[in-house]
TrEMBL record:
Any GO MF annotation of the entry: transcription cis-regulatory region binding
Region (Disordered): 1-26
Pfam families: TetR_C_43, TetR_N
Organism listed in the record: Mesorhizobium amorphae CCNWGS0123
Protein name, as recorded: TetR family transcriptional regulator
HTH tetR-type domain sequence ranges: 26-85
InterPro entries: Homeodomain-like_sf, HTH-type_TetR-like_transc_reg, HTH_TetR, Tet_transcr_reg_TetR-rel_C_sf, TetR_SbtR-like_C
Domain of life the protein comes from: Bacteria
Amino acid sequence: MAPEPAETVEDKAPAAPQKPLRADAQRNRDRLVEVAAVAFAQNGVDASLEEIARQAGVGIGTLYRHFPTREHLVEIVYRREVEGLCQAADELAANHPPDVALEQWMQRFVDYIATKRGLSTSLRILLTTNSTLFSDMSGRVTLALRRLVEAAVADGSIRGDVDASDVLHALGGIYSAPDTKDWRDRSRRLVKLLMDGLRFGAKGS
């Protein structure tokens, strides 16, 4: 095997910053990611890229200019879902009582899991090439949930012996449930049952 070329000064130089997208190009990109998230959640990672482009109102060439590979699109969709989930935690906490914010966030978590299940095959591929992606993203989700749980415990609206890691473990069971047509509806009912258990015996109940 030929030796790898020696590192040059050019190799060490920082990459030039990317130019910001034009407003229309940014709208196209955002729309593609939004449509892809729905498509992957409904049809899995093999969802047609041509159909995603069509529903986003752009040509397939535009899709590939923004996302050269399917895995690239998958990664961006996954990051978007995590960002949305974490942002939802802050917004819900600011606008609802702590236990209501927690319950609504867990219902939003069901949608996140639906998309993640659809991305599972490509996410496993990404795991071999970007090992920090999942630890970084899952860490952010855990912190968002911990803030909500701790606020509800402090408020007395859920039990005081609740730990965020236990709640996350319970929610994780949704991910491994059989993929049936009524999976999402059953998952939402399970969240309600979980919240009933978290509220049972709380100081404010």
